[in-house]
Amino acid sequence: MQDSEWFGTVALVLAVVVVIGGGFAIAAEGVPPATTTVAVSVSHLNLTIQINATNGMPQYTPANFSVARGEIIVTIVDQDAPAAWPGCACNVTGTQGNVESINGSAPTSQVSWTTVAHTFTVPSLHINVLSPAQSTVTFTLWLNQTGQFPWMCMDPCGSNGYTGAPMGVPGYMAGTMTVF
Ligand SMILES: [Cu+2]
User: Fold this and answer.
1) In angstroms, what is the span from residue 45 Cα to ligand 1's centroid?
2) Ligand 1 center from residue 29 Cα (angstroms)
């Protein structure tokens, strides 16, 4: 093989590598991953809303938590009283079927504002779940995206309705859901 042929062969191999490599780069960056992710297991997330014994404020426990990507069955036990929220359409969104079950009843997509005490709302995932007073709510989430997702309560449960603690206070009516 002459030098010129050898260089030509090397150049061709490099060109093929660049093309294949470029192909992978495009696949990784330009093409969204398949959304038909299959959950390897079903996980459970249990949240409780209790009155903090020290300051009397309603508080989600835990407020910051991690869940595995896939199917998650969530239970919220709410021990608080209803908060007045006239005008709330109180629609359930972002859960499987856009429904929740209250005290084991048939799944519903809408909850009467007269009963609601708090919400579990994740704006970036369009999740909105209503938590009636003195109730146990269950619903299923299907989370394909990993990352950190802030959640908050949208019900005017603060000292001045929409403002004032615990409204928006991390560890009480706001927190972060980490999906791994
Ligand atoms: Cu609240």
Assistant:
1) 18
2) 39
- Residue pLDDT, tens place only, 12-31: 444 444 444 444 444 445 55
| Ligand 1 centroid, distance to 155 Cα (angstroms) | 5
Amino acid at 66: S
Query: Structure pTM?
Result: 0.77
160: three-class secondary structure by DSSP: strand
CA 43–ligand 1 middle distance (angstroms):
25
Residue with tokens 């927190």: 175
CATH fold of 42-179: Immunoglobulin-like (2.60.40)
Express each pLDDT in 62-93 by its tens digit: 999 999 999 999 999 999 999 989 999 999 99
Parallel/antiparallel/unpaired status of strands 174-179 and 65-67? parallel
What are the residue boundaries of the structural domains of the chain, listed by start? 1-31, 42-179
CA of 150 to the centre of ligand 1 (A): 15
**E runs forming strands in 14-115:** 42-51, 58-61, 65-67, 70-78, 101-102
Cis link prior to 150 (omega < 30° from 0)? no
